[in-house]
Amino acid sequence: MVNIGLVERNRSEVCQVLNTLLADVFLLSTKTKNYHWNVTGLHFHDLHQLLGEQYAKLDLLIDQITERVQVLDNNALGTMMEFLSFTRLEEHPYYELSDRGMVEELCDDHETLIRALRKILERNADIYCDAGTTDLLTTVMQQHENMAWMLRSVLGQKSHLKQWVKNQEQTQRENGVEISVANVSSGNKGNS
Ligand SMILES: [Fe+2]
Predict the structure, then answer these.
(1) Residues 102 and 183 occupy one common structural domain
(2) pLDDT in tens, 124-162
(3) How far is the CA of 173 from the centre of ligand 1 (A)?
(4) 3-state secondary structure the chain
């Protein structure tokens, strides 16, 4: 009988959360592999490489999640049917999507999992008591945040930066300054 300072009920509830996450990450890894294999277009090489790196990261997370379930003396899901019935994500075949559509789809999935993980970390008292799982879930969330950022960058969705540049230019116009942020950086180069 395992005795690691966590009661059985807590361990089993935490493992339900971990198994649902496992199903999500497994589906997202499969989806990322599918798009890595089947993406086409002018950006083929970059996307093929980026998605290859991302599924390798997801596969590492899968291993970490399943090992945590074993540490807590429970069983990890392991069949495709189980993954499909427990996941919060949906499959989307590559042939219905453009290369951009694939990146958007994956980015949405990462963001869905980030929101779910944030809620779990904030609200789940059983996980709050289990520092090891909290640490793992935080790591998993950070990895999804990192992958979502890279995918958003491919899509060129730097809306905050664009808005900031617009605001700076507006302020300069209001102050009667006839230079844009782009001119400022080239001007700086000239002065150096
Ligand atoms: Fe590959």
Answers:
(1) no
(2) 777 768 999 999 999 999 999 999 999 999 998 666 666
(3) 50
(4) CCCCCCCHHHHHHHHHHHHHHHHHHHHHHHHHHHHHHHCCCCCHHHHHHHHHHHHHHHHHHHHHHHHHHHHCCCCCCCCHHHHHHHCCCCCCCHHHCCHHHHHHHHHHHHHHHHHHHHHHHHHCHHHHHCHHHHHHHHHHHHHHHHHHHHHHHHHCCCHHHHHHHHHHHHHHHHCCCCCCHHHHHHHHHHHC
* Residues 43 and 105 placed together within one structural domain of the fold: yes
CA of 53 to the centre of ligand 1 (A): 9
Which residue range(s) make up the domain with 25? 8-157
Question: How many whole angstroms from 56 Cα to the centroid of ligand 1?
Answer: 10
Whether 152 and 164 share a structural domain: no
Distance (angstroms) between ligand 1 centre and the Cα of 36 equals 7
Cα 74 to ligand 1 centroid, rounded to whole Å = 33
Q: Provide the CATH number for the domain around residue 151.
A: 1.20.1260.10
51: CA distance to ligand 1 center in Å? Answer: 9
Whole-number pLDDT of residue 191? 41
Query: Does one domain contain both 147 and 95?
Result: yes
pTM: 0.82
| CA of 52 relative to ligand 1 center, distance in Å | 6
The whole-number pLDDT of residue 26 equals 98
